[in-house]
Amino acid sequence: MTIRSVILGTGSCLPERTMTNKDLEAIVDTSDEWIVQRTGIRERRIAADGQTTADMAIESARHALQAAGLHGADIDGVIVATSTPDTTFPSVAVKVQAALNICQGPAFDVHAVCAGFIYALTVADSLLRTGVARRLLVVGAEKMSSILNWEDRTTCVLFGDGAGALVLEAQEGRGEIADRGIISTHLHADGHLRDILYVNGGVSSTQTAGHIVMEGKEVFRHAVALMADVVTEAMSHNGIGPEEIDWLVPHQANIRIIEGTARKLDVRLDQVILTVDRHGNTSAASIPLALDEAVRDGRIQRGHLMLLEALGSGLTWGAALIRY
Ligand code: ACO
């Protein structure tokens, strides 16, 4: 008998305000054509003044609980993946815990930038499989707009705000790939590459939040290669080929990175869940947002095999193979 971490419900939250590429043309020297061609992004959501990462995390978690048919009291802990917390401390996770009346177990944030949700899933899966908890809320939530330099056209057109969540429950499996739940996760980091994508501020350095700085071409080059590597690692670890994958749910940074990874893997584009055109890059929130959309519109169904993959600043990257 093996314990599997099974997804009971998903949820999401997108801010009301949509910022189109046309809107951005009024802010920086850019064009809808350039942004669509280079990134596939057409619009993104931007949080209202005063709307925080925790506000979005709480709403997405509430929807995930509703989808699972559970209440806060049924949950044993909260893990939030974020790089844009409301405050340096306490964590966003404790705000989610309090808002949803979750009265037991741990609550903490995981900081691995765009790969944060895969890291958080891995930590949650470990807690569930070792019996520390029976049900956990895992959230990815970001207010990227608060760390953008709105005068830098090379970065401000790429990102958006939002949150996605899921409820995981420890259930008995047979230890086979046919089991529902998280089958395996694969994490990596290479701190030598931290200078190609970073935020130029922080508590112990500048005492400011800072802004995103990026060498786009370098990030692009590493992203395609490393994400294809980690997805291949996940498949060979489980002895499966791309034909057995129902859905690729990638981090939504750039359509060209996603297409490049899908091509390398021989996965058809209609097997890829895409939200980058409407959400932009929402960092740790992008995978759970995409997952929730595809679950709710009926594409992802019970029993489907999904491969999640992401890469972010650090560099950090990872993949998760999950049967929904
Ligand atoms: N509008 C118009 N022109 C622009 C813009 C813009 N928004 N941004 C840059 N340009 C210009 C540049 O100034 C440059 O002009 P020049 O030739 O006169 O110097 C030209 O466009 C080409 O710029 P490049 O940077 O070479 O463009 P590139 O084809 O590399 O595309 C991009 C840039 C889209 C950022 C690409 O490199 C990329 O997607 N990189 C990966 C970024 C990413 O995904 N980051 C996040 C992943 S990790 C995470 O999610 C945190």
General description of the model:
The chain has ten helices and 13 strands. It is an alpha/beta fold and 324 residues long. It folds into two domains: 2-173, 3-Layer(aba) Sandwich (Peroxisomal Thiolase, Chain A, domain 1); 181-323, 3-Layer(aba) Sandwich (Peroxisomal Thiolase, Chain A, domain 1), CATH 3.40.47. The radius of gyration is 18 Å and the shape is globular. The mean pLDDT is 96. It binds acetyl coenzyme *A (ACO).
Write a brief caption for the model.
This protein has 324 residues and is an alpha/beta fold. 32% of the residues lie in helices and 26% in strands.
Rg for CA atoms:
18 Å
Instruction: Provide a count of the helices.
Output: 10
From the N-terminal CA to the C-terminal CA, the straight-line distance is 19 Å
Summarize the amount of helix as a percent range: 25-40%
Give the full name of the CATH homologous superfamily of the largest domain: Thiolase/Chalcone synthase
Q: What is the ordering of alpha helices and beta strands?
A: EEHHEHEHEHEHEEEEHEHHHEE
Count of separate structural domains: 2
Overall average pLDDT: 96
> Which structural class matches the secondary elements?
alpha/beta
Low-confidence stretches: none
* Biggest sheet features: 5 strands, mixed
Strand content: 25-35%
- In CATH terms, what is the fold-level topology of the largest domain? Peroxisomal Thiolase, Chain A, domain 1
At the first level of CATH, the class of the largest domain is Alpha Beta
**How would you write the strand order of the largest sheet?**
1-7-6-4-5
Number of strands: 13
> What's the overall geometry?
globular
Bound compounds, each kind once, are: acetyl coenzyme *A
Second CATH tier, the architecture of the largest domain: 3-Layer(aba) Sandwich
